Amino acid sequence: MNLEGKVAFITGGAGGIGEGCALSLARFGADIVIADIDSHNGARVAGAIRELGREALFINTDVTHVEQIEAAVTQAATHFGRLDILVNNAGGVRQTPFLKQSERSWRKHIDFNLVSMLAATQAVANVMIDGKRGGTIVNIASSEGLRAAPGFAVYAACKAGMISFTRSMALELADHGIHVHALAPDMIETTGLKPYFDAAGEAENAARDRYIPLKRLGAIEELGNVVVFLASGMASYLTGLTIPVDGGAIASSGWSRSPRDGRWNLYHG
Ligand SMILES: NC(=O)c1ccc[n+]([C@@H]2O[C@H](COP(=O)([O-])OP(=O)(O)OC[C@H]3O[C@@H](n4cnc5c(N)ncnc54)[C@H](O)[C@@H]3O)[C@@H](O)[C@H]2O)c1
After folding, report:
1. Which of 186, 183, 187, 136 is nearest to 162 (CA)?
2. Nearest to 63 by CA among 21, 119, 9
3. Atom number in ligand 1 closest to CA 193
4. Are 239 and 181 in contact (CB under 8 A)?
5. Quick one: what percent of the chain has pLDDT higher than 90?
6. Domain of 145?
7. Total tally of structural domains belonging to the chain
8. Strand partners, 178
9. pTM, whole model, 2 decimals?
10. From the CA of 217, how far away is ligand 1's center (Å)?
């Protein structure tokens, strides 16, 4: 899996899953564009990419502003002369019961998670089409886009929208050799979430082990590694997939390990 000569554009690449994708892609040879609002960590990740012998470009970009995404894509395409991989990663959530959630909050979720993906996809796909070399687009959705998410309903609707959009784009862009996929992570140990996971008590950790078959949180590189595979020639006959990168959490839905004997059961207390 050799990505040398390819250029990846990653939204939210200065931390968390985006950083994992940036470092994994660079390890396999790609040059990286980080479009993020965090210039401090953007410089840190760009430095790590250069240490791997690849080129890195940080572009200060707030993905909730479509014109900033378009300007960043133009700058990146001008700098490198090509774009081959897009990771639509920046996004996020605030827990709110839906009946108390304001219209402003709905729209913020939609802009951050969904509109940002639409804007980056359109801008980067046009660069890929002009370059006539095809490409790969990977949308970082969520397991919440595949199941119910009480308290996160609007976020989950956005993530389900990302998954639906992924399938439509796989068809619309197939004739241009552009492959489009979604990843659906569940619980990934990012710097932002680590304190919450660290603060979890024994009972919470035991409950997590009952429902995640692989019995642990995911690492950011474990998302990055899947993106590397999808962007490589090894995935040349794949498009339109949604891959749960979740230690088996979606596969287990409804099933969990019995706290008594560790056997898998449905709906026990
Ligand atoms: N961490 C998880 O367990 C998990 C699980 C499922 C899905 N996801 C999804 O994965 C993606 C990344 O999540 P994460 O936990 O790595 O995020 P994170 O909070 O760790 O942030 C990732 C990066 O996004 C950047 N960012 C924040 N707002 C931005 C903006 N307006 N414009 C540009 N960049 C911005 C941050 O500066 C940071 O570098 C999100 O779409 C999230 O919904 C994460």
Report:
1. 183
2. 119
3. 1
4. yes
5. 87
6. 7-201+217-247
7. 1
8. 135
9. 0.97
10. 16
